[in-house]
Design a protein that fits this description.
This is Copper chaperone NosL. This protein is α+β, with helices and mostly antiparallel strands. The chain is built from 5 helices and 7 strands, in the order αββαββββαβαα. It has one domain. Strand 3 and strand 4 form a beta hairpin.
Length: 203
């Protein structure tokens, strides 16, 4: 009888442990992106429901979203990583959430991302290598290798289309098109400024 009681107690302890682990996993689970309200915790730009969105949840349950992996890296530099329960990136191909440490990354300064850090994410190395082969550019990196990455922004790739977001290398056209759009915007601003000065001088 005593042995049966010990076995029952042991089974209950194991079950309780499983429930607690499951609850912890749910606590740090990735949450959906809501473009209407989600703002990057670093650059304050809209977080789009795209392959570049990233997020983390702290151990005390606070969720932070970012429009670019580089912004999440900035948050970690400012706040440290000890209190992070889990951090996530999205697969470039199907937007599935992946744990940051389990993803594979491709970096090239010519790759256009929302804040011009030039890093895209993949669920496995094979997908990352296929992307590099298709694009003809890119360095495949692990999460550990990103720790020593310089995180330089390529300001030539900052999108000037009004929402502050760039595109992937194969989505947003050539860099020349980007610079052309930027030049048009600057020209319009200068023209409007000239008209404003003329108008004010007539009073």
């Amino acid at each position: 009888m005593e042995k049966m009681n010990k076995r029952w107690i042991l089974a209950m302890v194991l079950l309780l442990g499983t429930v607690m682990l499951t609850a912890c996993g749910q606590k740090y689970a990735a949450v959906p992106i809501n473009e209407d309200v989600d703002i990057c915790a670093i650059c304050n730009m809209q977080v789009k429901d795209d392959a570049f969105a990233t997020q983390l949840t702290t151990k005390d349950g606070k969720n932070f979203k970012f429009d670019d992996l580089g912004c999440m890296n900035e948050w970690k530099k400012e706040n440290g990583t000890d209190n992070i329960g889990m951090d996530y990136v999205r697969d470039y191909n199907d937007k599935e959430w992946i744990e940051f440490n389990k993803a594979t990354y491709v970096y090239d300064p010519s790759l256009r991302t929302p804040m011009a850090y030039g890093i895209v994410n993949f669920k496995d190395k094979a997908a990352a290598e296929a992307f590099v082969a298709e694009q003809g550019v890119g360095k495949v990196m692990t999460a550990d290798e990103l720790a020593s990455h310089d995180w330089t922004q390529n300001m030539d790739n900052m999108n000037m289309d009004g929402d502050g977001h760039g595109h992937g290398h194969d989505e947003g056209g050539t860099d020349q098109g980007s610079k052309h759009d930027m030049g048009e915007d600057m020209s319009k601003d200068m023209h409007q400024e000239g008209e404003s000065k003329e108008g004010s001088g007539s009073h």
